[in-house]
Amino acid sequence: MMQSILFVCTGNVFRSVAAEYAVRAQTGPQSCYRVESAGIKASPQSVPLVVCTPLIQKGIDPSAHIPQALTKELIDRVDLIIAMSLNHREFIQRQFGLTAPLFNEVSFGEETPILDLHEALPDWERDLVQARDYVEAVIDYIWKAVPALMARLPQFPGHREPVKP
Protein backbone atom coordinates (compact mmCIF):
# COMPACT_ATOMS: atom_id res chain seq x y z
CA MET A 1 0.00 0.00 0.00
CA MET A 2 1.33 3.42 -0.92
CA GLN A 3 1.62 6.01 1.81
CA SER A 4 1.61 9.69 0.92
CA ILE A 5 3.77 12.30 2.60
CA LEU A 6 3.33 16.07 2.36
CA PHE A 7 6.18 18.38 3.38
CA VAL A 8 5.05 21.89 4.34
CA CYS A 9 7.04 25.12 4.52
CA THR A 10 6.23 28.77 3.82
CA GLY A 11 6.52 29.45 0.08
CA ASN A 12 7.04 25.89 -1.22
CA VAL A 13 10.24 26.93 -3.00
CA PHE A 14 13.00 25.97 -0.54
CA ARG A 15 12.74 23.62 2.45
CA SER A 16 9.67 21.55 1.53
CA VAL A 17 10.85 21.30 -2.09
CA ALA A 18 14.29 20.11 -0.94
CA ALA A 19 12.64 17.48 1.28
CA GLU A 20 10.21 16.33 -1.43
CA TYR A 21 12.88 15.94 -4.10
CA ALA A 22 15.45 14.41 -1.72
CA VAL A 23 12.98 11.71 -0.62
CA ARG A 24 11.98 11.02 -4.23
CA ALA A 25 15.61 10.76 -5.34
CA GLN A 26 16.67 8.53 -2.47
CA THR A 27 13.68 6.18 -2.49
CA GLY A 28 13.57 5.78 -6.27
CA PRO A 29 10.74 5.18 -8.74
CA GLN A 30 9.71 1.89 -7.09
CA SER A 31 9.06 3.64 -3.76
CA CYS A 32 5.91 2.82 -1.81
CA TYR A 33 5.63 6.53 -0.93
CA ARG A 34 3.95 9.31 -2.86
CA VAL A 35 5.68 12.55 -1.91
CA GLU A 36 4.44 16.11 -2.34
CA SER A 37 5.11 19.54 -0.89
CA ALA A 38 3.12 22.69 -0.24
CA GLY A 39 3.45 26.10 1.36
CA ILE A 40 1.31 27.98 3.85
CA LYS A 41 1.89 31.16 1.78
CA ALA A 42 2.72 29.67 -1.60
CA SER A 43 2.29 31.74 -4.74
CA PRO A 44 3.17 30.98 -8.36
CA GLN A 45 6.92 31.54 -8.77
CA SER A 46 10.01 29.70 -9.89
CA VAL A 47 12.22 27.78 -7.49
CA PRO A 48 15.16 30.16 -6.93
CA LEU A 49 18.42 29.32 -8.66
CA VAL A 50 20.14 29.22 -5.26
CA VAL A 51 17.86 26.25 -4.41
CA CYS A 52 17.91 24.60 -7.85
CA THR A 53 21.69 24.59 -8.26
CA PRO A 54 22.62 22.41 -5.25
CA LEU A 55 19.75 20.02 -6.01
CA ILE A 56 20.84 19.73 -9.66
CA GLN A 57 24.36 18.94 -8.38
CA LYS A 58 22.77 16.05 -6.47
CA GLY A 59 21.17 14.77 -9.65
CA ILE A 60 17.64 16.16 -9.31
CA ASP A 61 16.16 19.15 -11.11
CA PRO A 62 13.31 20.97 -9.34
CA SER A 63 13.15 23.82 -11.88
CA ALA A 64 9.75 22.66 -13.22
CA HIS A 65 8.27 22.62 -9.68
CA ILE A 66 5.16 24.78 -9.31
CA PRO A 67 4.51 25.91 -5.73
CA GLN A 68 1.15 24.88 -4.34
CA ALA A 69 -0.72 26.31 -1.40
CA LEU A 70 -1.68 24.13 1.53
CA THR A 71 -5.43 23.43 1.24
CA LYS A 72 -7.94 21.12 2.88
CA GLU A 73 -8.23 19.20 -0.40
CA LEU A 74 -4.50 18.58 -0.44
CA ILE A 75 -4.46 17.55 3.21
CA ASP A 76 -7.39 15.17 2.65
CA ARG A 77 -5.44 13.19 0.04
CA VAL A 78 -2.27 12.59 2.09
CA ASP A 79 -1.52 10.26 4.98
CA LEU A 80 1.19 12.23 6.78
CA ILE A 81 1.99 15.95 6.89
CA ILE A 82 5.52 16.90 7.95
CA ALA A 83 6.15 20.53 8.90
CA MET A 84 9.55 22.05 8.29
CA SER A 85 9.28 24.64 11.09
CA LEU A 86 7.26 25.54 14.18
CA ASN A 87 5.13 28.20 12.48
CA HIS A 88 4.08 25.65 9.85
CA ARG A 89 3.07 23.16 12.53
CA GLU A 90 1.10 25.90 14.34
CA PHE A 91 -0.62 26.95 11.10
CA ILE A 92 -1.67 23.36 10.34
CA GLN A 93 -3.02 22.99 13.89
CA ARG A 94 -4.87 26.32 13.81
CA GLN A 95 -6.27 26.09 10.25
CA PHE A 96 -7.00 22.38 9.99
CA GLY A 97 -7.02 21.04 13.56
CA LEU A 98 -4.26 18.55 12.77
CA THR A 99 -0.99 17.79 14.51
CA ALA A 100 1.97 17.59 12.15
CA PRO A 101 5.39 16.44 13.31
CA LEU A 102 8.44 18.49 12.44
CA PHE A 103 10.94 17.20 9.87
CA ASN A 104 13.61 16.93 12.60
CA GLU A 105 11.13 15.19 14.91
CA VAL A 106 10.50 12.46 12.34
CA SER A 107 14.18 12.22 11.35
CA PHE A 108 15.93 12.48 14.72
CA GLY A 109 13.31 12.73 17.47
CA GLU A 110 14.19 16.41 17.98
CA GLU A 111 11.64 19.20 18.35
CA THR A 112 13.80 21.62 16.35
CA PRO A 113 12.76 23.63 13.31
CA ILE A 114 14.61 24.03 10.04
CA LEU A 115 14.74 27.81 9.78
CA ASP A 116 13.98 29.75 6.63
CA LEU A 117 16.69 32.01 5.25
CA HIS A 118 15.18 35.21 6.67
CA GLU A 119 14.76 33.57 10.10
CA ALA A 120 18.36 32.38 10.28
CA LEU A 121 19.85 35.49 8.64
CA PRO A 122 17.51 38.49 9.05
CA ASP A 123 19.85 40.70 6.97
CA TRP A 124 20.58 38.03 4.36
CA GLU A 125 20.43 40.54 1.47
CA ARG A 126 23.59 42.23 2.85
CA ASP A 127 25.70 39.10 2.38
CA LEU A 128 24.53 36.99 -0.53
CA VAL A 129 27.46 34.59 -0.20
CA GLN A 130 26.47 33.85 3.40
CA ALA A 131 22.83 33.51 2.27
CA ARG A 132 23.82 31.03 -0.48
CA ASP A 133 25.98 29.09 1.98
CA TYR A 134 23.03 28.85 4.40
CA VAL A 135 20.63 27.62 1.69
CA GLU A 136 23.16 25.05 0.50
CA ALA A 137 23.82 23.89 4.09
CA VAL A 138 20.07 23.41 4.69
CA ILE A 139 19.69 21.44 1.46
CA ASP A 140 22.68 19.24 2.41
CA TYR A 141 21.22 18.76 5.89
CA ILE A 142 17.82 17.72 4.52
CA TRP A 143 19.47 15.43 1.94
CA LYS A 144 21.58 13.67 4.58
CA ALA A 145 18.59 13.38 6.96
CA VAL A 146 16.40 11.46 4.49
CA PRO A 147 17.68 7.96 5.42
CA ALA A 148 16.93 8.65 9.10
CA LEU A 149 13.53 10.12 8.19
CA MET A 150 12.62 7.06 6.11
CA ALA A 151 13.79 4.66 8.83
CA ARG A 152 11.68 6.39 11.49
CA LEU A 153 8.63 7.06 9.28
CA PRO A 154 6.67 3.97 10.46
CA GLN A 155 6.53 5.54 13.95
CA PHE A 156 4.41 8.36 12.47
CA PRO A 157 1.24 6.78 11.10
CA GLY A 158 -0.25 10.07 9.94
CA HIS A 159 -3.21 12.21 10.83
CA ARG A 160 -5.78 9.70 9.61
CA GLU A 161 -6.00 6.05 8.76
CA PRO A 162 -4.73 5.31 5.24
CA VAL A 163 -7.47 4.32 2.82
CA LYS A 164 -7.36 0.59 2.10
CA PRO A 165 -7.00 -0.23 -1.63
Characterise this structure.
This protein has helices spanning 15-27, 49-57, 72-76, 86-96, 103-108, 117-120, 128-152, and strands at 3-9, 33-39, 80-83. With 165 residues, it is mostly helical. The protein has a 3-stranded parallel β-sheet with strand order 2-1-3. Strand 1, helix 1 and strand 2 form a beta-alpha-beta unit. The protein is globular and about 40 Å long.
Which structural class matches the secondary elements?
A: mainly alpha
Low-confidence stretches: 160-165
- Specify the number of helices: 7
Mean pLDDT metric? 91
Q: CA-to-CA gap between the ends?
A: 7 Å
Beta content: 5-15%
Rg (C-alpha, Å) = 15 Å
| Total strands | 3
SSE order, one letter for each helix or strand: EHEHHEHHHH
What general outline do the C-alpha atoms trace?
globular
| Order of strands across the main sheet | 2-1-3
Largest sheet: 3 strands, parallel
How helix-rich are the residues, as a percent range?
A: 40-55%
Task: Please provide a brief summary of the model.
With 165 residues, the protein is mainly alpha-helical. Helices cover 44% and strands 11% of the residues.
